[in-house]
Design brief:
By secondary structure, the protein is an alpha+beta fold. The protein has one domain (19-143): 2-Layer Sandwich (60s Ribosomal Protein L30, Chain: A). It is built from two helices and six strands; from the N terminus they run E-E-E-H-E-H-E-E. The chain has helices at 63-81, 99-110, and strands at 19-21, 36-39, 42-48, 89-96, 121-126, 136-143. It has a six-stranded mixed sheet. Strand 2 (36-39) and strand 3 form a beta hairpin. Helix 1 crosses helix 2. The protein is globular.
């Protein structure tokens, strides 16, 4: 009879409680959510709309380039409120309401926010509509340095 193999059971370290962040001076949420949720060094940012944090009821910027800039600036604002910046971003999810029309201009604008050698992983999808009539929304996951 073969000897049974002995296996050690490795118990994962318990996760800490998540921290729910609302950033002072950040964009006014368009629904019930936190700007970001953080747990064990991972920071998950809610998708941002192209709203102006200083004038949340103002009309949205015109066109995909201006809306992309506002969305990316809003993400940067939230990250800064957490002591982070766009270099800490590991992954982005991007949503476009007019994918074929706007994809190239979106990419041209989006890439300005990341060094060529530090671009996060990314998924971009076309959707039928976004909150507040936006053309673009971007969310992201960042990692706090150890």
């Amino acid at each position: 009879m073969e000897k049974a193999r002995q296996h050690s059971i490795v118990r994962p370290k318990p996760l800490t409680d998540p921290v729910f962040h609302m950033i002072s001076g950040g964009p006014r949420p368009v629904a019930p959510f936190s700007h970001a949720v953080e747990n064990d060094g991972w920071v998950i940012l809610t998708g941002q709309m192209p709203t102006d944090p200083k004038a949340p009821d103002a009309p949205l910027p015109e066109g995909i380039e201006a809306q992309t800039r506002r969305v990316m600036d809003n993400l940067a604002l939230i990250l800064a409120g957490l002591g982070l910046d766009l270099t800490h971003v590991m992954q982005c999810r991007c949503f476009l309401t007019a994918f074929e029309r706007d994809y190239k201009v979106f990419n041209d604008t989006y890439q300005l926010y990341f060094p060529a050698d530090r671009r996060p992983a990314r998924t971009t999808v076309g959707v039928t509509a976004l909150a507040v009539g936006a053309l673009v929304e971007v969310d992201c996951i960042a990692r706090r340095p150890a």
